[in-house]
Amino acid sequence: MKITVIGTGYVGLVTGTCFAETGSTVACIDIDEKKIETLKKGEIPFYEPGLSELVIRNQQDGRLTFSSDLRAAVAGSTVVFIGVGTPSRKDGSANLEFVYQAAREIAYATDDIIVAVKSTVPVGTSQKLKELYDQMKKPGIRVVSNPEFLREGNAVEDCLKPDRVVVGTDSNDALKIFHKLYQPFVRTGNPIMPMDNISAEMTKYVSNCILATRISFINEMSMLCEKVGADIGKVRAATGAINALVRSIFSRASASAVLVFQRRSRTRGTFPRS
């Protein structure tokens, strides 16, 4: 399958390279000509274990190319991924200028393609893109929300072996294509999770919030363990089994399950005071 990835930053470059590694023909696009020339030489602008080797190998094998010519890359592509940056404005909101610029450029280049948003965007962005394409009279462009869940330092592994693939779309045709595109990534049985666009966008934010909460919580528990003389490493390993309980509670919509969780959360031991 031929795909195009717009943006050669952290998300775009890792995504494009991993798709090439699994057999797709990938064109990575960036407006920065100097950056494109650097990537053609196999030089990566940031460090990510294993990425440089994959970039070099897939370029040599002809599956991965770098260019600033978006129109030429889009021609014949089945999917275009938008992986550009969404920097914060002064008020803290996301600057979507590059996302909308890329979306418009795609519409100028073709009438029939799947546009998949990899960039982290506010909830509702996919709907605005659909409205944009309606205004431009491009009914053949379908919008997919396909958030990334890459961890710095482990991005290649996370991309090639994801624990889940979230695909937000209202297009059955697009969903079938994404099942085919991601099949090499989920051979071990991890799920491709179809849903609507808004739910997919929200999944990214909820995942980020859960991660931040877990980090903050374990930091607090680490200080508590130090205070009472416990080994945080052993405590953390032993409490990993709680993940199964949390998944079980989240998967059940009954009030009784929530009440059980609340009762367990309120049960506290007595700790020594300083």
Characterization of the model:
This protein has 274 residues and is of the alpha/beta class. It is built from twelve helices and eight strands. The chain has helices spanning 10-21, 33-40, 51-60, 70-74, 97-109, 125-135, 155-160, 172-182, 197-228, 232-238, 242-251, 255-266; strands spanning 2-6, 25-29, 64-67, 79-82, 113-117, 141-145, 165-168, 192-195. The strands form two sheets. A six-stranded parallel β-sheet has the order 3-2-1-4-5-6, with helices on both faces. Strands 7-8 form a two-stranded parallel sheet. Strand 1 (2-6), helix 1 (10-21) and strand 2 form a beta-alpha-beta unit. Helix 1 packs across helix 3. The chain is globular and about 65 Å long. Mean pLDDT is 88; it is low at 252-261 and 263-268.
Question: Can you give keywords for this protein?
Answer:
274 residues; alpha/beta; 6-stranded parallel β-sheet; two-stranded parallel sheet
Detail the topology: elements first, then pairings.
Elements lengths: L1 E5 L3 H12 L3 E5 L3 H8 L10 H10 L3 E4 L2 H5 L4 E4 L14 H13 L3 E5 L7 H11 L5 E5 L9 H6 L4 E4 L3 H11 L9 E4 L1 H32 L3 H7 L3 H10 L3 H12 L8
Parallel strand pairs: 1-2, 1-4, 2-3, 4-5, 5-6, 7-8
Distance, first to last CA: 64 Å
Computed Rg: 22 Å
Q: What is the N-to-C succession of helices and strands? A: EHEHHEHEHEHEHEHEHHHH
Helix content: 40-55%
Write out the strand line-up for the largest beta sheet, numbering strands in chain order.
3-2-1-4-5-6
Q: Compute the number of helices.
A: 12
Structural class, from helix and strand content? alpha/beta
Bulk shape: globular
